[in-house]
Write a structure and sequence with these properties.
It contains nine helices and ten strands. It has 252 residues and is α/β, with parallel strands linked by helices. Strands 6-7-8-3-9-10 form a six-stranded mixed beta sheet, with helices on both faces. It has a four-stranded antiparallel beta sheet with strand order 2-1-4-5, covered by helices on one side. The C terminus is likely disordered.
């Protein structure tokens, strides 16, 4: 089966400093790939390059049979197929939750507002926020804002969803409510690439784990193997810096 996304030997530099140094990976439909590694290793830059927020210096990025790494003029169309959620929520503060959710599907996809609103309400119910449809973002907690951001991304019906450290700005007690939504999406078959520092979450949700170091993929494998017996010394050192019990869920 052909991959939904194919990244081929991409390079990215900032001011002459290499951040991505020949990264290649394939992601298949329904697969959840989690990218971990120390700060500054290039994992967030990788997602931003896939979404076209950063222009690569070499290599290719393909979405199914379309090369998207040379689609600068049409990246707004590509981003309708590749959703991305950041740690900063990016909700419009002057607009109610429902209005934030309606904006993209009705303006970019030209979908009927009534149809989108019905779908949005159903999604808000699933993430426990139905009563917040008419609330302004400033009245929401960080975890609630991030759940709204996830719903907003899903309403665009993306083929691939990129999640970049979506719990990094949250208080510890709010992390689980967001991660549970992502686990539900994985169980529903959503194709995702996730950058995270939450090792328990990575182990629970991933089909495949990529470990990056200094702009390259050092190791990859199934979570059961990676978190128990990493093959490289660098991955072992990285995992030893986290104190966690191995709690691989048998959900998927």
């Amino acid at each position: 089966m052909n991959p939904i996304l194919s990244v081929k030997n991409i390079q990215k530099s900032f001011d002459g400093t290499g951040v991505l140094k020949g990264v290649s990976l394939d992601i298949h439909e329904g697969e959840v790939v989690v990218v971990i590694g120390p700060s500054g290793c290039g994992k967030s830059t990788l997602l931003r390059c896939i979404n076209g927020l950063e222009r690569i210096n070499g290599g290719e990025i393909w979405l199914r049979d379309q090369r998207i790494s040379d689609q600068e003029k049409n990246m707004h169309l590509v981003r309708q197929k590749i959703g991305m959620v950041f740690q900063s929520y990016d909700l419009f503060p002057h607009m109610k939750v429902m209005d934030n959710l309606l904006l993209g599907p009705t303006k970019a996809l030209k979908r009927p507002a009534d149809e989108v609103k019905a779908e949005a309400m159903e999604m808000l119910k699933r993430v426990g926020l139905a009563e917040k449809a008419d609330a302004l973002p400033r009245t929401l907690s960080g975890g609630q804002k991030q759940r709204v951001a996830l719903v907003r991304a899903m309403l665009m019906h993306p083929e691939l969803l990129l999640l970049d450290e979506i719990t990094a700005a949250l208080d510890p007690e709010m992390v689980s409510e967001v991660l549970n939504v992502v686990i539900d999406l994985a169980e529903q078959g959503m194709t995702m690439a996730i950058v995270t520092h939450e090792m328990r979450f990575a182990e629970a949700v991933a089909d495949r784990v990529l470990f990056m170091e200094q702009g390259v993929i050092v190791e990859e494998g199934a979570p059961a193997e990676f978190f128990r017996e990493p093959r490289t010394e660098r991955a072992r050192q990285f995992l030893q810096s986290f104190t966690y019990a191995s709690t691989r869920k048998n959900a998927r």
